[in-house]
C-alpha cells in the first residue's frame, strides 16, 4: 500500500504531500491544478504538514543524520519530563503545568507583540510551571529552534517540550541536539507504525514522547501501542480550529479511562484552558497535567498569569 492509503485505513485524513507538488503552470489546453484533486491542501493542518515536508528535506540535506548523530554523543543528558509533571501534581494537588512559549498561531494570530522567549520562560518557571513547551515551527507559529536553545542555555530548569510537527525521525534527533527533553507526536498525522518507530527512537535518545490525540479513534489507536507514558488530548481540532474542552472529558470516559489508569498513563489536557473552572473541569475528567499557551502568554507578567489560571499561587 502507498503511504496515504495506509494512513487512510487508520482514519488519518491528513495526506502527505504529493511527491511532484502542485503543478505551477498550465499544461496543454487544461488547467491541471484542480482544487482538492490531490494537489491542494484540504485544511490548515495538511498545509502545515506539506510545508514541513519541504522544510525537513532541505534541512536534512544541510545536516544529514550521520552528522546529527555525532552531536548526540556530546549532548548533555535530558531532564525527566514525566517525573517533573508527577512531582508538580503531588506537590500542589493540581494538574502539573506545561506552560507554552507561544508567540502566534494560525487560529489566533499574534498573541504577544514584545516577545522575549527567555524572559517568558523564566517567568513561567518562577510562577510554578512544571515543564515548558516551546514552539519551533517558524512559518505558522513564529517559533524557532533558536528559542529552544536559548531557553535551555539560559539555565531554565524546567524540562522542555519541543512543539513541532514531526513527520520524520530526523526531526527527533535535531530536537534532542537543540535541547529538548520531550517531543510532540501528533496521531492525526502519523500512522501507527510511525508512532511505534518514533517512540522507540525517543526512548533511545532519552526523550519523553507526548502523543497527541483529538478523537476516539486516535485515542484507541494510541492505546494499542506499547510503551506510551504520556497522552495529550487536544481540545482544539487542528483541521477546523474549533475548541471544545468537553473533548477531554469525552475521551476519558468509560473503558478508555479505565485502560489509561491501568496502564498508568499520564494524560495532558491541551488547549482552550483559561480559568480555574476550566482547570478543575479537566482535572475532574482525569488529567494529571495541562498544556496552556494563550491564556498565560498574553499576560503582561506570564508568571502571574499562572496564578490567575489556577486561582492561586502555585509557585511555593
Ligand atoms: O494556546 P492554548 O489554547 O492554551 O493551547 C496550547 C496548546 O495546547 C496548543 O498550542 C497546541 C496543542 N497541540 C498543538 C499542536 C501543534 C501546535 C499547537 C498545539
TrEMBL record:
Domain named Indole-3-glycerol phosphate synthase: residues: 45-306
EC id: 4.1.1.48
Keywords, ordered alphabetically: Amino-acid biosynthesis, Aromatic amino acid biosynthesis, Decarboxylase, Lyase, Tryptophan biosynthesis
Top-rank EC class of the record's enzyme: lyase
Chain positions covered by the region annotation Disordered: 1-20
Record GO biological process: L-tryptophan biosynthetic process
Pathway where this protein functions: Amino-acid biosynthesis; L-tryptophan biosynthesis; L-tryptophan from chorismate: step 4/5
Gene Ontology MF annotations: indole-3-glycerol-phosphate synthase activity; phosphoribosylanthranilate isomerase activity
Catalytic activity as recorded in UniProt: 1-(2-carboxyphenylamino)-1-deoxy-D-ribulose 5-phosphate + H(+) = (1S,2R)-1-C-(indol-3-yl)glycerol 3-phosphate + CO2 + H2O
Pfam families: IGPS
Organism superkingdom: Eukaryota
Entry keyword Transferase: no
NCBIfam families tied to this protein: PRK00278.1-4 (NF001372), PRK00278.2-4 (NF001377)
UniProt name for this protein: indole-3-glycerol-phosphate synthase
Protein source organism: Hibiscus syriacus (Rose of Sharon)
